[in-house]
Amino acid sequence: MKVKEVNTIEDARIVLGLFVVRARRVAEHSMVKSGEAEKFAVYSYSMAMQIGEYALPRRNFPKNEEIVESLASRLRPCMLRSESIYWQKVLKAIELIANASIDEATSEKLDGLGRWFKQFEEYKQVSYSIQIFDDKGNPVSQSMNNQLIADGWTYADLVHVDAEGAKASALALPYDDRYYAATSNYCALAMKVLELLVLVQNLSKDVDLGLPEDVWTQQVTYDGRSHQVVASRVYVGEPGTKVPDGDIAKAKGFTELTPLKFIYGRCPKQRAKIAIIDARGHVLRRLLGFYASDQGNLLLAVGDSLMLTLENAGHVSATYPKILNIRETKGREQEAKELLDLMKTPNRTNAYIIVNNKMRGITLRIRERDLRLLRHR
Q1: CA distance 119 to 111
Q2: What angle (nearest 5°) sits at the alpha carbon of residue 319, between those of residues 314 and 321?
Q3: Pairwise CA distance, residues 129 & 239, whole Å
Q4: How many CB atoms lie within 10 A of CB 98?
Q5: Residue 377 in this model has a pLDDT that exceeds 70
Q6: Which of 196, 223, 226, 284 is the most buried (most CB within 10 A)?
């Protein structure tokens, strides 16, 4: 819910909740965590000078421009009037909720932050100015302070391409000048946003701000985990099959994509055809499977419910290789049990695989003692 004006307690709580989440995201930024944001918040130069030569000032800013861009994007909503967490709305929200409970020291901090944000917004947080002159000493540009130059970078180089008014004048400067100004500008802003976050956090210890607990605990950045379950079931159909509005599991033309079907389709050379045969030679059941090598042993998937590890099956007789391990698939335990009951002696299981472009047959017998090897996976 977007808050245009903070008029009620409900508005204030929405604004503060959104601010806490975004400010925590700023706090997790790599420049903040490494200390670089604090370092670059102050404009600085390095000076090199040798006897008989001019002094050579060098500006200090990150070589990796993309980290500055990402920091700027996390901070930008705090400075846009149209956003729910525009700094004036945040300060008004704090005043509306906790005004009667704010002590003098906290009130002074809020006033100080309010003055800083206002000066920042009005380009009055000035550290230096640049003006361009021709070779005769005549000015060919207006005087541009660091904040105006930084906004030139924001509006012409970062999120827009049509810088207008005074901001457009910064385009007369080299790109490095705009980037340098923007780096310190956004790092300084980050420090103040975090200062305001700490103030809200401390205030919440003494005053019930009415914020949901999860604004302090919910995940605000990607945590580096590359594998996450996004669905418990996957169903596939032929290209062009219409996706139904209802339960896809009951839809015509769709089948569940099991690990077996996935690998069977993607790795044709590892396919296995399996038959369970009784003592009289009658085929009781045919199944699809796949195989893979594992440290000299053979992994054989029987349907979607069982995985067998066979000892050195590629180098010894393929008749009755030793079974090292039996694993059943989680969620398919009943199916695995029924399959093992069918595979047990006196029945046998024949598996046909392709090794070195040649068809090989493997015959298995599963005895009661082998069932002690059963594991869940």
Answers
A1: 12
A2: 60
A3: 62
A4: 21
A5: no
A6: 196
